[in-house]
Amino acid sequence: MKTSRRNFIAYGSAFTLVNSIPSFVFAQNKPLFESINMFIPAAPGGGWDSTGRAIEMAAKDSSLVGSFQFENVGGAGGMVGLPRFVNQRKGQGNALMVGGSVMVGAAITNKSPVTMSDITPIACLTEEAGIVVVPTDGKIKTWKEFEEAIKANPKAVSVAGGSAGGTDHQLLGLIIKALGKNPREAAYVAFAGGGPANAAILGGQVVAGISGYSEVAEQIKAGKMRALAVSGNKRIPGVDIPTLKELGLNVTAANWRGVFGAPGINASQKAALVEFVTKMHETKGWAEILEKRKWTDAFLAGTAFDAQLKKYITETEIVLKEIGLA
């Protein structure tokens, strides 16, 4: 094919233009991580598991990561899985673990030798108010009936929730105390995750349940559970459920969730994980997930989260001692 001088100049200009573009432009579509090993120290179906899956969805949709590998190890509010993560993921720069306030309480309650101080804080992601629910066909139908039952005999009101000492357990203790009874008499039934707890509530094995709204929302919408109260400072947007304060109890509580790196990673490995989670948090997909699941954005990363975590631990110790769980 004969090439004119004009075409030759055009081709040459295009070649020069392409080669003048900085290499980082072509690298923009390269994921920050080829793969992430996501460790969930809870059974499938609960809040930590759904948080991990939501991170995967937002990150993969935005090409921030090539692939995810999940491992679920449930039990004792993360105290079964946490030692496994610590022992098997040490120094791995592409490992993340989902955890939060439940794990803080469980470590204190169980006097665990392995705690969140043994892993690397990366970022706090969400907060979620607790919600008190009852099975629709159960004997309690209203908050007033639940309140009266607690006042009559807390031991007779079995309440399902997450691990012993976790946010759900703490909330029940605070409710019982606010109603003038001894929180040590709480008939709390602990489960390894939201899935098993939901099954117990729906199966009538307990009188009531405490969970995060996102974990029971579908059951409420389907008419299988009845919501009595939420524990936030204000109502969940778009959800017509009164707060405990509206019902006359000066009680608020929120369940925060975040991600943690493995022990023994260096500063650059931690910085890479913080960058990854920060960029994931900025995606449109993550914003849509927060809206859909009614999670409150509580993003805090890096050294700011390190400091906040220490505060969380101190505050939890105070609450657990107050309600007789520590």
Into which percent range does the helicity of residues fall? 40-55%
Proportion in β-strands: 15-25%
The description of the largest β-sheet is:
10 strands, mixed
| Overall radius of gyration | 24 Å
Unreliable parts: 1-27
Q: What is the domain tally?
A: 2
* CATH domain fold name of the largest domain: D-Maltodextrin-Binding Protein, domain 2
Task: Please give the CATH architecture of the largest domain.
Answer: 3-Layer(aba) Sandwich
Q: Structural class of the secondary elements?
A: alpha/beta
Number of helical segments with 4 or more residues: 12
Shape verdict: globular
Describe this structure in words.
The structure is a single chain. The protein has 326 residues and is α/β, with parallel strands linked by helices. The protein has two domains: 36-127 and 255-322, D-Maltodextrin-Binding Protein, domain 2 (3-Layer(aba) Sandwich); 129-230, 3-Layer(aba) Sandwich (D-Maltodextrin-Binding Protein, domain 2), CATH 3.40.190. The chain contains twelve helices and ten strands. Strands 1, 2, 3, 4, 5, 6, 7, 8, 9 and 10 form a ten-stranded mixed sheet that branches. The longest helix is centred in the last third of the chain and has 20 residues, at 303-322. The N and C termini lie far apart (85 Å). The relative contact order is 0.18. Mean pLDDT is 90; it is low at 1-27.
